[in-house]
Amino acid sequence: MYRIEIKKHVLKFKVPAGTSRGIMNEKPSWFIFMKDVNNPEQVGLGECGLLPGLSYDDRPEYEAVLNHLKQWVEQEDISFILQNRLQEWPSIRFGLETALADLLSGGEKILFPGDFTQGKQAIPINGLIWMGDKAQMLKQIEVKISEGWRCMKLKTGAIDFSEELSLLKYLRASFTTSELEIRLDANGAFEPAKALEQLHQLAEYGIHSIEQPIQPGLWDQMAELCLHSPIDIALDEELIRLPDPRKRASMLKHIRPKYIIIKPSLTGGFASSASWIKLANKQDIGYWVTSALESNIGLNAIAQWTSTLRNPLPQGLGTGQLYTNNFESPLVIKPGFLSYDPNIIWDTQFLCSTGLYG
Q1: What Rg, from alpha-carbon coordinates, does the chain have?
Q2: Quick check: is 118 in a domain?
Q3: What three-state secondary structure class fits 330?
Q4: Are residues 206 and 306 in the same domain?
Q5: Of 123, 203, 277, 347, which sits 20 to 30 A from 324 (CA to CA)?
Q6: Is 333 found in the same domain as 210?
C-alpha cells in the first residue's frame, strides 16, 4: 500500500520570461511525496508542474484532484489511477509516475540509471532566447554566442516581424548554418493567412525548424503549411490536448509534420510520451524532448528518461537555471550540453521542511 502527501511550491523567475502568451514572473509546482507503508524510510518524489494558460489540466479543479489523489493511492491500483483516473490530468500523471519510479528505484532520484546518471554521457541541448524587445533579445543572443552555444532556439511572434528578421540577419552575418543552428518557436503566434509568407521570409536565414507557427486545432491549415513550408515544422501545443491515442495517430497522419515536441509534463508522463514517439516513428516523423519549466526535480526525471532514448538531436532541457528558488542538483549545464555530476548532492532543504523527506 502506498501513501502520498503533496506540497505546493511557487518557482520565482530570476528574469521575467517572455512568451507570445505574455510575461511570466512565477510558476506553480506541486510535489508528490510517495511512501510504501511497508518501507516508510524511502520516499519517492515527483513534480506536477502547470503552465498557466497552456497546460491541458490548468483548470479550477486541479488542487481538488490532487486531494482526491491521496485517497485513490491508498485504495486503488496505481496502474488503474495512471491509466484511467488521470488521463485528463497529464501533469499530475507525470508527477505520480515520477514519484513511483523514484520510490521503486530507492528514493535517490535516480529513476533511469545509466551512463547519464554516472556522469559518462551528456545530452546535447539548445540554448533558449526569451522574447523581449530587439535590444533585450540581441543581448541574450550575444551572451549565448560568447559562451559557445551552437544551437539556439528563439521565441518569435511577440515583437515586430521586421525586427525579428533583422535579428536573424545579424546572426547569419556572423555564423553559417553549419556553425549555428537556429530553431524558432512561435507558440501559435502567426495568423494562418500570413504564415506561409512569413515562413518564406524566415527561410532566407537558414532556419532549422519552427515550432507551432499557428494556433493548435487548425489541422487543415497546419497540414497545408507542412506541405508547402520551406522550413521544417515541429508540432508543440498541437500535442497537448490529445489524450486519446486514436486521435493522436489521426492528427499526425493528417498534418504530417517533420517533428513533434515531447513535453512529459504536458503530454502525460513517460508512458504517454513514449506512445507519441512510437506513433511518430511509424510515420517517419522526428522528435525531441523539451522541459516545461519544471524545477530541477522534474527536469532531472525528464533528462534521465531522455538519456535512455539516445536521440542525437539537441533537446530542449536547458531550463534548470531560471529560478531564484530552485533546488541545487547534480544537473550541470555547459554550452550545448546537459550532464549529471554524481558528486553533487541534492539541496533538499525545502523538501525536508515537509517532514516527509530526508
Answers
A1: 20
A2: no
A3: coil
A4: yes
A5: 123
A6: yes
**CA dihedral in degrees (224, 242, 234, 298; nearest 10)?**
170
Give the structural domain span for 66.
2-108
* 210 and 143 in a common domain: yes
Q: First CA to last CA across the chain, in angstroms?
A: 21
Provide the domain count of the chain: 2
DSSP line for 260-325: EEE-HHHHTHHHHHHHHHHHHHHTT-EEEEB--S--HHHHHHHHHHHHHHT--SPBB---TTSBSS
Residue 100 to residues 3, 97, 105, 111, 280: CA-CA distances in angstroms? 11, 5, 9, 9, 27
Rounded Cα distance, 291 and 289, in Å: 7
Return the SS3 of 74.
helix
How far is residue 96's CA from residue 93's CA, in Å, rounded to a whole number? 5
Within a 10 A sphere around the Cβ of 28, how many other Cβ atoms?
Answer: 16
* Percent of the chain whose pLDDT exceeds 90: 79
pLDDT, one tens digit per residue, over 300-332 is: 999 999 999 999 999 999 887 889 999 899 999
Looking at the DSSP bridge assignments, the partners of residue 32 are 6, 46
**Nearest to 111, CA basis, from 120, 101, 119:** 101
Using DSSP's 3-state secondary structure scheme, residue 126 falls into coil
Burial classification of residue 349, based on how many CB atoms lie within 10 Å of its CB (0-12 exposed, 13-18 middle, 19 or more buried): exposed
Strand blocks (E) in the chain: 2-19, 22-36, 39-49, 123-124, 127-129, 151-155, 181-185, 207-211, 232-235, 259-262, 286-289, 331-334, 337-340
Active-site residues, by number, are 155, 263
Euclidean distance between CA atoms 301 and 13, whole angstroms: 21
How confident is residue 217, by pLDDT bands cut at 50, 70 and 90? Answer: very high
